[in-house]
What we know:
The structure holds two protein chains of two kinds.
Chain A: H1 9-12, H2 17-30, H3 33-50, H4 55-63, H5 71-87, H6 92-103, H7 108-131, H8 137-155, H9 162-178, H10 210-228, H11 235-251, H12 256-268, H13 276-295, H14 303-312, H15 317-323, H16 332-351, H17 367-386, H18 392-403, H19 412-417, H20 427-444, H21 448-464, H22 468-493, H23 505-509, H24 525-532, H25 545-561, H26 563-568, H27 572-585, H28 589-600, H29 606-622, H30 630-645, H31 653-660, H32 666-677, H33 682-695, H34 700-710, H35 716-730, H36 733-748, H37 774-787, H38 795-804, H39 807-816, H40 818-824, H41 829-837, H42 843-854, H43 861-874, H44 890-901, H45 905-916, H46 924-927, H47 932-940, H48 949-961, H49 968-980, H50 988-998, H51 1003-1015, H52 1022-1035, H53 1040-1043, H54 1048-1057, H55 1062-1070, H56 1074-1079, H57 1082-1089, H58 1096-1107, H59 1117-1124, H60 1127-1130, H61 1132-1141, H62 1151-1165, H63 1167-1175, H64 1177-1187, H65 1189-1200, H66 1202-1217
Helix pairs in contact in A: 2-3, 2-24, 3-5, 5-6, 5-7, 6-7, 6-8, 7-8, 7-9, 8-22, 9-10, 9-11, 10-16, 11-12, 11-13, 12-13, 12-20, 13-14, 17-20, 17-21, 25-28, 27-29, 28-30, 29-30, 30-32, 31-33, 32-33, 32-34, 33-34, 33-35, 35-37, 36-37, 37-39, 39-62, 41-43, 42-62, 47-48, 47-49, 48-64, 49-50, ...
Chain B: E1 4-8, H1 16-24, H2 34-42, E2 52-55, E3 61-63, E4 72-74, H3 80-97, H4 100-110, E5 124-129, H5 132-144, E6 152-158, H6 164-183, H7 187-202, E7 206-212
Parallel strand pairs in B: 1-2, 1-5, 5-6
Antiparallel strand pairs in B: 3-4, 6-7
Amino acid sequence: MDSEDEGTQPRVVDMTTSERVVDLLNQAALIPTDEKLTVLKQVQELIINKDPSLLDNFLDELIAFQTDKSIEVRKFVIGFIEEACKRDNELLLRLIANLNMLLKDDSVNVVKKAILTLTQMYKVSLQWLVRSKAVSERQEACWDLVTQMKGDVLALLDSENDGVRTHAIKFTESLIVTLSPRTSDSDVPKRQESDISLDKVPRDHSYIRYNVLCEEGKAALEKLLKFMVHPAITSINLTTTLGSLATIARQRPMFMSEVVQAYETLHANLPPTLAKSQVSSVRKNLKLHLVAVLKHPCSLEFQGQIGTLLLDLGMAQSEITRSTPAPREQRKRPRHEEYTEGKKVKMEPALNEDDEDKEEPALLLVPKPAAVPVAQSSIDLTAEFLHPLLSPDNVANLVLISMVYLPDVMPASFQATYTPVESAGTDAQIKHLARLMATQMTAAGIGPGLEQCKAREDDAMKDEGNDEDSVAKDPFIKRKAAMVGQAISVLGGYEKEKTPPPEAPAPVVKRLPEPIVPTGQTKMAGPSGRKKVFRLSDVVQPFSEAEIEKLTSKAIRRILHAEKTIAQSGMAHIRVKLLSKLVTQFEGMMKEDVLEFILEDIRARSDLAFSLLYQEYNTYLSHLPTGRLDSYDHCLYTLLSGLQEKPEQRDGLFTKLVLEAPLITESALDVIRRYCEDESRVYLGMTTLKELIVKRPSRQFQYLHVLLDLSSHEKEKVRTTALAFLKRMYEKDHLRDYIEKFALNYMQLLVHPNPPSLLFGADKDTEVAAPWTEETVRQCLFLYLSLLPLNHRMVHELASVYTEAIADIKRSVLRAIEQPIRGMGMNSPELLLLVENCPKGAETLVTRCLHILTDKVPPSPELVERVRDLYHKRVPDVRFLIPVINGLEKNEVIQALPKLIKLNPIVVKEVFNRLLGTQHSEGSSSVSPLTPGDLLIALHNIDSTKCDMKSIIKATNLCFGEKNVYTSEVLAVVMQQLMEQSPLPILLMRTVIQSLTMYPRLGGFVMNILSRLIAKQVWKYPKVWEGFVKCCQRTKPQSFSVLLQLPPAQLASVFERCPEMREPLLQHVLSFTLHQQAHIPASLMVVLEAHKKPEPKPVEPVVEKEMDPVPAPVEDKAPTVTLEGPETPEQPQPAAVREEEEPMEHEQPAPVMQEETVDTVSKEELTRAEEPQSSQPEPAEELMEESQPDPSDLQEPVENVEAGVKEPETGSGGEDVE
Amino acid sequence: MPPVGNIPEESNCSLCNIGWFPSADPVPFLTHHRERLRRLWVSGRRKRGFDVRSFGTGSHVKLPGPAPDKPNVYDFKTTYVQMYNDLVRKDKELYTQNGILHMLDRNKRIKSKPERFQSCKDMFDLVITCEERVYDQVLEDLNSREQETLQSVHVINVDIQDNHEEATLGAFLICELCQCIQHTDDMEDEMDELIQEFEEKSNRPFLHTVCFY
């Protein structure tokens, strides 16, 4: 730029002025208002004063600030426009429209500043046009706009704002001065010497019409005068107007008469609205301005009136005189006249414009200028008319009459203006009074003066009628102005709409100047300013992405938050539609905003939510081949998650949203799943899921899968609810397979040595090596087990899995199946089939099932049949029989007894419980094939080859433990039956003794038994005999009578065993009466009395004799041994039992564990039974102890008489054989 | 162009109290930076140095002397320091007692010497006078100037009588008035009402007019 060679300063800073300006502008875009102003002022200084060549370059950048938020900055822009236009008038073309925009600014202060500037600009532009030789169309348009703006400002005299009106007044003042010719007697302020005024406007100007301007000026004056007499004018406006009029009077003395008259009118009619102090202020001003006018040389004519006014205003006559111009100036008056004429001369050509006559031809009475003197003379005429009428009488009458009209309160203005009339009655005073009244009358539109004037005016009007041209011109201008106005309003709105093509071709070309409208760009001025150093053309830039984003989202936000307002107008649905369409159309933040907004009160805004969702889906569909669901997915996901995260709502909005969504995406499904996992909402969630499954067949398996997944959920409530739903769904044919497959697959997992990671949810990254736990096992079974009662066939799958599973799992399975198996019931054909088939390795499972089934209900015949079958044909494990034992035949039970009692004591106990009906209340005892007596008898009759004596004894002890069952009566019957058997059971006497111990009152009965045993030659059964003796020993002396019934040899044997018995028995006999004693055989007495040694001998031979017949059966020794040494064989016995049991679990790797399994199971099962059991051991032990003495007692003699013991045994064995 | 509020002072001794009161404790006056100032005001920050300036309108600076008819008279070229020194020399005790020295001491810290309103070419938004005579002088001066920018200046007069109590009350009144004006959204539009309110409240006549630069 050529500015570079200017000044050294830029070089010092190493910057050209241009660069500095750019730098400053960049700064200005970013800094706060205060600093911005400083910077902008620097810029202004640089481009206007320092290097005006830059002005054009940076014009747009500076003007861009006219949309700045700060009022001060906007005001600065106005100032800049003024300075710039003054510097380079050509810029008016570009800037005047901007000024026009600012003239309509929202801020009053900006408007005021704009008015002030327009005051200057009006003059500048007029001068510029006048100077231009050829006026371009753009210039014309510019002037049109200026004219338009002038009209706007004049209209602002009616603004509501006091300050604006004040400024408008000042503008009007300046306008009047400009649009009237300067004369030689004009007061011309030095600064305004070069200002344009009407006299400098050539009448032959190609565009500006002299007479039009003249008329405009006069119209403005009229407007101002009219404005001043408005009754509601404020004091400030009034003061301003007074000052303006004074200025006008002094600068344009031709208007002095109007001004003075206006002053007079005002003085007599101060607005009633003024307060007292305001009246003082106004009067002070009036005085001041009157003096100022008075000082003007042209005031001569009005000195009288002014003087009177000043006197009224309280000014001393001396002062008035001092202010009155020197009489020498009177000579100026003719000059004034001259110039008035001169003015008229100038006006005249305006009227006869066509004449193009610059000369000043003969003066004519021209209407408007004439109007002034006319108005004046109307008051004059009326005053003259009144003057003679004001006789003291008349005046007194007037005063009296007007008294009636006086207000109640003295008006402030009157109070302020009232001065005692000093010169009352003098001619001067009467004249003054006449004039005052005339002023009032004229103002009121009455009086002879006014009428005369009117008549004159009418004449003048007729004259004016000649001026066809000017009249013709006027409408043309007006029309154009109107069009301009139209254009302006459009421009003011926005630049988008250009001036609509008007009818007349000429104005089309002559478009009004357009404002430089960078609007929103202001803020971006920084960066773009840099570029603009080089290129001005690319001023107009699209908004930046961020800007667009910001604006759009703001717009959306406004719509969003207009919720209530719009709802009130009943257009809510349109808002919803609009929002959803807008939001889906544009990417970005607003989507989030809207979603957030919805979620704030989703209940009330659900329609928006749905609308948005459908819109999103619609968008997806419309791009179908390539469309992506992301946006829709996001929308749905956000809404659902929002609902899911919200606290409990019962309105089912979640369900509604899910069911009405056009498509459920993966992530949405995740939310649904999460919803279902919430324990408080699991039901609602799953109902929703169920609905989905039912109503969206196309993807039902996807949804079903979620539900299936939940069926093994760790939270119980979730799980059970899911299972409940699944069970219901299982009834639907088309879903059944899928559910079943899933359940089975899941169960199949159990065959793995370790639980698959699948079981631990994706989040838990457990090593696969983790062992199975109860939890994980159950997880695999939940679904299966809940389906099992619905589909019994599935039970076989369980069996096959069971056989393959490891022990831990087996145990867990056994624990888990109780409910479902019970649910299936023992009539289930499939279950029966399972029992029948009982796969190898599933024996425990089957047993467990049997137990579960018969736990509370007696077994059905079918079941018994199946078990029996299984037992007899395939797996001869007696334990199968236990659950169904009550369903078996009596002989079957008796047959099985030996095996049964050899089982684990706990199991044995259970068996007995079942048999004795002591296990459960519901009368299974009645169902029992064996009565308690039968059982005890059966126990006594067990073949000792099939079962060891120890087990039998234990089993009998169990019976004795059930005191409730084995009452004395039952035992008596048992003893009776046993005694009648032949041969006598080995344990007979043990049972007798035990019964006696339990029920001592059975003593008599026992004696009877003993007696009958004698009859049965009890001594032939060594074991029994032993017990017999023992019993007698215990029951002495009751047993004495029985003993006496023994044959002598046997009695001797007794004494041999218990020598201490002899003496008491002898005494007993001796106590008999002789008669009684006579019944005692002598042989017996011999035994009783015999103390001789040979006596025992005969016994032995007897014994030996008895032994003889039974030498053969040696096998019988084994039981004898077991009896005699109960301790010794005990050890191997459990082992034997184990071995016998083992066949049940042939292939099991850990039979012991298995055993435990069963044990624990039975423990569980028998919890109820266990309690009595645990309390029983004591009595049982007692019994044992009590019975213990028996063997020990027995043992002693056995030791002593080894052979003797053997003999009876063999004897018994022999009898067995017999 | 500094936006300035103005209180004529030093025109004679009767105005001294008022004259220095606001200058020592600058009252925030309305300026054409109203928007900014209003914000400052609202945010509770009394920014110092709101452009408040005091002026005299007489031809000389008069300070009270030993007797009412014997004032100390200086021309506008005399600095406060010079006045101060002069009075100290004349009767330190008297001028300490009547507060003149104190006043001068404060004034000299604010500016070097008194200013005459008529010689000041800066433009103000608001001029406040405390005596009708001064008001007239201001008006006369303003109206005698050539109009140029047509920027408006409001001139307000509140009569404050020549005693300590009145001066203090008056100072507060003016201070309050200024604050109220400061608070208006649109000074010009609300000024009329505001002044009437004050007139009623204070029971004093106010004079108010607008002039143009």
